[in-house]
Write a structure and sequence with these properties.
alpha/beta; 6-stranded mixed β-sheet; 14 strands; 18% strand
């Protein structure tokens, strides 16, 4: 065991020597480190959870265990591990457990460590597995930090792209970077290697579906699982019900389909956005909308046969809302009026609707402008909301109708304004 821990220390030290991008939530997360509560860092594979955690612990005396290591999993023994850690990291102040969900009964072991007053940081790529088991064993004793692939502002920071766009050349450069992000997403390892986007994300997608889900849950019908996953990617930003999916994909069992959908959500590939309704039962019965964790999956030729910039932009806006500490089904939803007009996002604060957001890539046409404005106004009247926003690709302004004011803002400026004041 000591050899495994020593080998992983070498791996840790090598990672600490590299230069990494400062993440949007890093300053906020740093405030949590001294707390005796467990720090749970969750998010999809390869989004930067481990790197963020290493950045938070850099310069501190911390021990490290990586549970993506098959040798560690095969030979794991609590007493042997703790002895090896004490020898390799004498007097450590923090313990980082990377991809902990790979260890069977990890929650019971973590509970023991917590009772011994060990300051723990835990990373994992399975939302429900981690949060439900942490909630069962350690209710109220952990803080959760969610890490997604790079935001637009992080990509700009990585590429040293400024926000200033006063001259035509500056604006052209800026918009090319925004378009690059819209098409290829924010996975850190391919920001400067766009030519490998398709192969990289196809491999990552297969690994998540076939390893993190099929293998973990001992699923025999892997073809059905994979077929469902690829179909959901093609359905991004569209509504679905489990009944409609069952019919479309010829699943023999609706319960199996629901279970597969749940697994795909747990590993952060997909998010299912509910339709807003004050009555919980009606909300649960209404169709949900599908969003995907990174636009690179959407623009990959492996999954898309045609481009839809409106949907790509809508998916970006959804992900940006998540980065602003909003939670699906808690305070963000979509909405349809009694006349079946839709608003893409409802942002709720406690018990009232705070803001309505409509996404429209190009609102230059009069018919499109009327449709978008009529939809958000009608939904605003029903939900009694006055904070109305339409996010576009590059149009900007203020519109007035029926006594309501609508702000129209380009996506990149919406991102910039938030993180500059955050």
């Amino acid at each position: 065991m000591r050899e495994i821990v020593l080998s992983q220390r070498k791996e840790r030290d090598g990672l600490l020597e590299k230069a990494y991008l400062f993440r949007d939530h890093q300053t906020e997360a740093e405030k949590f480190i001294p707390s005796p509560l467990i720090k749970l860092i969750t998010g999809p594979r390869r989004a930067g959870k481990s790197v963020l955690t290493l950045l938070l612990l850099k310069g501190k005396n911390f021990a490290y265990l990586n549970f993506d290591d098959e040798q560690l999993l095969e030979k794991f023994n609590e007493d042997a591990v703790m002895q090896a850690l004490a020898e390799v990291y004498p007097g450590f102040d923090y313990l980082l457990l990377d991809e902990i969900q790979n260890l069977e009964h990890w929650d019971l072991w973590v509970s023991k460590l917590y009772r011994r007053d060990i300051n723990l940081l835990i990373t994992g790529s399975n939302a429900k597995l981690l949060s439900s088991e942490m909630g069962t064993v350690l209710t109220g004793r952990y803080l959760e930090i969610e890490v997604l692939p790079f935001s637009l502002t992080e990509c700009f920071r990585f590429k040293q792209q400024g926000w200033t766009a006063e001259l035509p050349d500056e604006r052209a450069s800026l918009m090319l970077q925004v378009e690059d992000y819209m098409h290829y997403g924010g996975y850190p390892e391919i920001i400067n290697s766009r030519e490998i986007t398709e192969s990289y994300l196809s491999s990552l997608f297969d690994s998540i579906v076939l390893k993190d889900i099929a293998k973990r849950y001992k699923i025999r019908k892997t073809t059905e699982l994979y077929q469902l996953a690829t179909y959901l990617v093609s359905m991004f930003c569209n509504e679905f019900t489990y009944t409609s999916l069952k019919e479309e994909l010829n699943f023999s069992s609706k319960s199996t389909l629901q279970k597969f959908c749940d697994y795909l959500q747990q590993t952060y590939i997909f998010f299912y956005l509910p339709r807003y309704n004050n009555k919980l039962k009606l909300m649960q019965k209404a169709p949900q909308k599908i969003y995907v964790v990174d636009n690179g999956f959407l623009a990959s030729n492996a999954f898309q046969t045609s481009e839809n910039k409106g949907r790509l932009l809508e998916n970006l806006v959804f992900l940006e809302l998540l980065r602003r500490n909003n939670k699906v089904g808690d305070n963000i939803f979509y909405y349809r009026s009694r006349n079946n007009r839709e608003t893409d996002f409802v942002v709720r604060e406690k018990f009232h609707v705070k803001q309505l957001i409509q996404v429209c890539y190009d609102m230059s046409g009069k018919k499109t402008e009327k449709r978008e404005i009529d939809s958000i106004i009608e939904c605003a009247d029903e939900l009694k909301c006055d904070d109305l926003l339409i996010i576009t690709w590059d149009q900007e302004g203020v519109m007035e109708k029926d006594g309501k004011t609508i702000q129209v803002v380009p996506y990149y400026k919406w991102c910039q304004s938030y993180w500059e004041t955050a």
